[in-house]
Amino acid sequence: MVANAWGVLDAKMAASGAAREAARAFVTAPPSADPIALAHDAAAASLRAVGRSPQRMTLSMAGAFVRCARIVATVRYQVPLVHVPLLGGFGGGLTVAARHSELVDPYRTGLPGEAVCAQP
Amino acid sequence: MPSPERGRPAGWTPLPKMPEAGSVLLLVPAAVLILIVLASIAVDSAVVFLGQRELANAAAAAARDATTAVSDPRFYGSGAVVLDPGRADRVARAAIAARDMRGVTLSEPVSVTVEGRQVCVSLTGRVERIVARSFPGVPGTVTVHARSTATAAGDPGTAVARRTIC
User: Fold this and answer.
1) Virtual CA dihedral for B111, B114, B117, B122, nearest 10 degrees?
2) pLDDT for A66-120, tens place per residue?
3) Distances (CA, A) of B77 to A117, B71, B72, B73, B140
4) Distance in angstroms (rounded) separating the CA atoms of residues A43 and A29
5) Four-point Cα dihedral B49, B54, A9, A103, nearest 10
6) Cβ pair B68:A6 closer than 8 A
């Protein structure tokens, strides 16, 4: 039970890191790129870096890619019911979720519109 | 009438009667109780840890958002990247309000300190334990703290001491 509880805790932290990376990748995306694709790639890379499978992750982004907009990245990750070292996880198990929100920089270049949030 | 010794090898002698027979009746409940206490400690520690991480993430996100509050008059007047304390405070509070913090409740006002182009956000929260609050004499809540510093980029000429305001 303690091992499984730690597995859930670890997955929660991994999902939290993935959400943060996704939000960061979204707000810093080049104007010509697809910010959602970049966010997805960043979240998957973050999960891979901590030894988790990106196939078990779902990412949803909310918010527009314009100056001053607040975007919210939500990562859901399925934790296997049983995890056996060297063999991997089995079973659907639980779903942990993590959210992270970030502002699109009002002074960044390449985006349309005015930086209304930067006015005093 | 069948003999109770039938089927046993020749020379078999029964063990002497153990005088401690029955003590397991006391040991098993004690062991189960110890396991329950250890499991409850594990659960409560996990809850407090997650609450502390949530607070730390909120502080980091608020500090990063607050660095967007660059003072326009200072920038267009002298070219210096300096944060507007009032706006930074508002942006940081909005970031925390927009965050759906689960498992931790803010117990003290949000503290936002601005110095130059650096901002520090300090948060104090309360995490409710799940199991321990059922036991008399054990505090049901734990106070956790988090703080985070962020520095606005774009002005490499101005040196900023690391974490001097937090």
Assistant:
1) -20
2) 888 899 999 999 987 776 767 766 666 789 999 999 999 888 888 877 777 766 6
3) 20, 10, 8, 6, 54
4) 14
5) -160
6) no
Query: What is the model's pLDDT at position B31?
Result: 92
Tell me if A9 and B46 make a contact (CB, 8 A cut-off): yes
Q: What is the pLDDT of residue A106?
A: 87
Q: Which residue of B has its CA nearest to A17?
A: B57
Sheet strands (E) in A1-120: 57-62, 70-79, 82-84, 88-90, 94-103
Q: Which residues contact B17 (CB under 8 A, 6 or more apart)?
A: none
The candidate with the shortest Cα–Cα distance to A119, out of B84, B81, B80, B98, is B84
Confidence class for position B138, pLDDT limits 50, 70, 90: confident
Domain boundary assignment for chain B = 24-151
Q: Which residue in the set B64, B70, B72 is minimally distant from A102, CB to CB?
A: B64
Shortest alpha-carbon distance between residue B137 and chain A (Å)? 25
Tokens 């929660």, located at residue: A12
B24-151 domain in CATH 3.30.1300? yes
Task: Show the DSSP H helices in A28-94 as ranges.
Answer: 35-49
For B82, list phi and psi in degrees, rounded to 5.
-130, 140
In this prediction, the answer to ipTM > 0.95 reads no
What does DSSP say about strands A94-103 and A70-79: parallel, antiparallel, or unpaired?
antiparallel
Residues of chain B with pLDDT > 70, as a percent, come to 85
Looking at chain A, which residue has its C-alpha nearest residue B67?
A105
Range from A6-15, A16-25, A86-95, B146-155 that averages highest in pLDDT: A16-25
Between CA A56 and CA A49, with CA A36 as vertex, the angle to 5 degrees is: 45
